[in-house]
Amino acid sequence: MQQRQSTLSLVIIAMFAALTAIGAFIKVPLPVVPFTLQIVFVFLAGCLLGRRNGLLSQLVYICIGLIGLPVFTQGGGITYVLQPTFGFLIGFAMAAFVVGWMLEKVEAPTKKHFIGANVVGLFLIYAVAVPYLYVSLNFWLDVKTSWSHILVVGFLNSIVADFCLAILSALLAQRLYPVFRTARALKIVRIEQEHI
């Protein structure tokens, strides 16, 4: 039974990694930083899978891209760490963990908890991605860029749309949460019973 639950967890982690990859190709081209739907699946991973599996789903996605599969918005490979937008990928993993952690601390999360966790996750993503964008362009890519330009292309161009997606993801997650929570609870109960 424990093996079956572990297999289910792996399948769900892989599924959310794949969804994040799909979200990379649903995009609106913008200067430097394209707008994508990846963030929706990052939030759903954190909300529905919890901190551990939510984080793992994003780490799987990142690792698959770094080994060479073209799952990122502009391809893949280990050199992708030099891309200006790689900071967003780091932020995705951190956000999935923090969103899951915040919701796990609440016994019965409500709409405001889901929205609050996603908004925190959103600003965490930008807190990592925007400085990474600045450092990437100005130092190893040698494209001299001001902070004001970075704030426009890396923050202002997409924050409103991403904020709306954070709210919509929270509302969707609230609907789906009972199903995923029941599955996680059954897994814990079965593991405890096997150790008695």
Task: Describe this protein's structure.
The chain has 196 residues and is mainly α. The chain has one domain (2-194): Arp2/3 complex 21 kDa subunit ARPC3. 75% of the residues lie in helices and 2% in strands. A two-stranded antiparallel ribbon has the order 1-2. Strand 1 and strand 2 (35-36) form a beta hairpin. The radius of gyration is 18 Å and the shape is globular. 37% of the residues are buried. The model is unreliable at 191-195 (pLDDT under 50).
Task: Give a quick rundown of the structure.
The protein has helices at residues 2-24, 38-66, 86-104, 111-140, 147-156, 159-194; strands spanning 27-28, 35-36. The chain is an all-alpha fold.
User: Into which percentage range does the β-strand content fall?
Assistant: under 5%
Q: At CATH's second level, what is the architecture?
A: Orthogonal Bundle
Q: What is the typical, i.e. mean, pLDDT?
A: 90
Task: Specify the number of helices.
Answer: 6
Helicity range: over 70%
Q: Tell how many strands the DSSP assignment holds.
A: 2
CATH fold topology: Arp2/3 complex 21 kDa subunit ARPC3
Radius of gyration: 18 Å
What's the CATH first level?
Answer: Mainly Alpha
Largest sheet: 2 strands, antiparallel
What attributes characterize this protein structure?
single chain, 196 residues, Arp2/3 complex 21 kDa subunit ARPC3, disordered C terminus
Write the layout of secondary structure elements.
Blueprint: H1 2-24, E1 27-28, E2 35-36, H2 38-66, H3 86-104, H4 111-140, H5 147-156, H6 159-194
Antiparallel strand pairs: 1-2
Helix pairs in contact: 1-2, 2-3, 2-6, 3-4, 4-5, 4-6
